[in-house]
Amino acid sequence: MCGIISVLSFRDNISKDLISALERLEYRGYDSAGIAYFDENSNLQRIRTVGKVKLLKEVVQKFDIKSNIGIGHTRWATHGKVTEFNAHPHVADGVAIVHNGIIENYQELRNSLISEGYEFESETDTEVVAKLIASNIKSGKDFIEAFKSAISKLSGTFAIVAIYEKEPNLLLGAKKGSPMAVGLSSDKQSCYIASDAVALSTLADELAYLEEGDIVVVRKFDHLSFEIFENGKDKIEREIVPNKVSLNDVAKNGYESFMLKEISEEAMVARRTFERFKYDINLSKYDSVSIVACGTSYYAGLLSKYWIEEIAKVHVDVEIASEFRYRNPVFSKNSLYIFISQSGETIDTLCAMRLVKEAGIKTLALVNVETSSIAREADIVVKTEAGVEIGVASTKAFVAQTLSLLMMCKKDIDIEAIERSINSVLNSQYDFAKMANKLKNSKSLFYIGRGTNYPISLEGALKIKELSYISAEGYPAGEIKHGPIAIIDENVYTIALAPFDNHFEKTISNTQEILARNGKIFLITTENSRELLHGLDKHEKVDSLFLPEIYSLYQPFALTTVIHLLAYNTAKAKGYDVDKPRNLAKSVTVE
Ligand code: F6R
After folding, report:
1. Is the Cβ atom of 394 under 6 angstroms away from ligand 1?
2. CA distances in angstroms from 362 to 336, 339, 356, 365, 535, listed in the order given
3. 372 lines ligand 1 (CB under 6 A)
4. CB 506 within 8 A of CB 478
5. Which end of the chain has the lower number of beta carbons within 10 A, N or C?
6. Using one digit for the tens of pLDDT, what is the confidence trace for 160-206?
7. Which residues are known catalytic residues?
8. Any idea what the Cα angle at residue 498 is, between residues 494 and 503, rounded to 5°?
9. Sheet containing 493-497, strands listed edge to edge, beginning at the edge strand earlier in sequence
10. Residue nearest ligand 1's atom 16 by CA
11. What is the pTM of this model?
């Protein structure tokens, strides 16, 4: 949440780097964006706009910016509305800062700064940090000491970068709880501090990731260099690793959106996950498995519960991280705790994992970003092979997560069958756009399914909600009559996931119950159930989609692609930005 970028350079066209990095960081938030830099007269300048980075870029391009140092930010609002005043960078007496995270003690700091005579222009928690550094400088500290001292007074989570008008050859960064990487350009002419490797994909080939409490000092003399200080004190070497994010990863490559590109990669991601899975995990040796995650990653965990219990015969609990971490859970020593996170930065999942570690229990992280905080802190890391996922709604990462979980309990996977089933959707003539046009006007809709189709229903409903802003609920098909059926009328669509499997007939009975109440059905089934429908697919209130016959264990993969394409098409039919749905951000680093 919130993306930060900063640069100190021998070149004077740093605004281009700032904007290009902000464009790549937009998946972390896009409520407002801004940059600050020193002009040719060493005066601090700031440009901020409300809305997406595209708007900031248009304004920045009107200026002929010549500067060697600057910072930039794209915001996901936490404290204070989406206004220009609340947009970063925040400034005070020649100091400018950008921040990702939450300063929990900002009110107390703000009160004390107000008593010193400072006035605040924003409602943010961040502005106090700029003022605190400025106040420290006023009291006689140099910029580095002022920065360190300010950082030591903050509680909460942060990745902060600061510049100061009187020190135009210094760039300072601090990390606690939010990710931060530092790297030089290949020609050593520019040095960057940013939220992640994605921001620096075209700018720096090698990076060092900061650890908790680290402070980084970038200096420019006759050359550029950076030094990292552990807990702001002793100098420490952090490993320099290649920046594995390529231009190809962060480009749409001809697709109209990242989401469509990423859905179209789902079969390839399944193949890659299968080929690179090198982990020897024996779930049967544990008394139970506890899976903790948020959102789509949680649904991947829920889906795996069906597989692990059936195949490995081990009891599985699946928990929402934000609940797990605050409910004083009882730990079981011979349990395996699995934490699932695409980004590896979700704060609730990270803190839940820390809780388990503190209890002296081994943790396994299933993450897509191997340099992420969750990956770095887990005892065992299983990397999902989704590749960089930019669309805010997780799609191909879900495929990588679910297949990795299946592979943890089943060794003999028929990857051709999985690939074929996903491709049967990707390469099909199914008219998702036509269906989406029908769904787009629904005020609310249901996804129903039984067995593994239930977690897929939850995932389908989440995708519709987050992209089309239609109230959608995923329900176990058998549960609908215990209350939700009261909502059904002629305006409500129910998407029934009913491929031919052990639950087929029961799910079909549940769709009949909905039809009996005038509800509309979109039936997603398989060819080998056609006969068994006895004409249900011809019912005037039923639309249907027939997938080819698929072995039931692999059905969730094809259904995943179906629900993702349906969500994509529904959002598109409504004219919404599928890559950047409102109010959301991809990496949820706040509680
Ligand atoms: C929904 C979505 C989110 C994430 C959730 C957890 O499409 O992407 O629900 O799954 O925020 O994120 P990670 O997996 O990064 O921990």
Report:
1. yes
2. 7, 11, 8, 10, 53
3. no
4. yes
5. C
6. 999 999 999 999 999 998 899 999 999 999 999 999 999 999 999 99
7. 2, 586
8. 120
9. 471-476, 444-449, 493-497, 520-526, 542-547
10. 341
11. 0.90
